[in-house]
């Protein structure tokens, strides 16, 4: 995988991770949602007016374009497992931004993912 291809894959992964974090921030701003027939429209309006949620959706849209560019240059069997780097980014960012737990088990899991991505990237 050359530098351009790796950059596209990594950009796609980071955009996807950013989208998740923005969606989480928007969901936290709204609070717990309980869907019923009576509140579908009000909840839809709340979701559609949350800037973090709109930003997350925009990140997803851009990430699809970047991902297509990446897939045009590399095999999907190599690119797709790289998405697991998003788990690492999200776990660390969620710990930092939202105060989510980063237990020893999660750290070990992150280490396993990183080793797996390294082995895959070297193939």
From TrEMBL:
Entry superkingdom: Bacteria
Cellular component annotations (GO), alphabetically ordered: plasma membrane
Entry-linked InterPro entries: EmrE-like (IPR037185), Small_drug/metabolite_transptr (IPR000390), Small_multidrug_res (IPR045324)
Annotated transmembrane regions: 51-71, 78-98, 104-121
Keyword line: Cell membrane, Membrane, Transferase, Transmembrane, Transmembrane helix
One Pfam assignment: Multi_Drug_Res
Similarity comment: family membership: Belongs to the drug/metabolite transporter (DMT) superfamily. Small multidrug resistance (SMR) (TC 2.A.7.1) family.
Protein name: 4-amino-4-deoxy-L-arabinose transferase
Species in which this protein is naturally found: Pandoraea thiooxydans
């Amino acid at each position: 995988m050359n530098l351009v291809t790796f950059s596209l894959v990594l950009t796609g992964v980071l955009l996807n991770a950013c989208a998740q974090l923005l969606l989480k921030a928007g969901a936290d701003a709204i609070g717990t949602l309980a869907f019923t027939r009576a509140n579908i429209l009000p909840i839809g309006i709340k979701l559609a007016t949350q800037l973090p949620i709109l930003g997350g959706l925009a990140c997803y849209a851009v990430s699809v374009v970047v991902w297509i560019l990446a897939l045009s240059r590399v095999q999907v069997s190599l690119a797709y497992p790289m998405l697991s780097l998003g788990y690492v980014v999200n776990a660390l960012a969620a710990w930092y931004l939202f105060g989510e737990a980063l237990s020893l088990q999660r750290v070990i899991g992150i280490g396993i993912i990183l080793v797996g991505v390294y082995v895959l990237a070297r193939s």
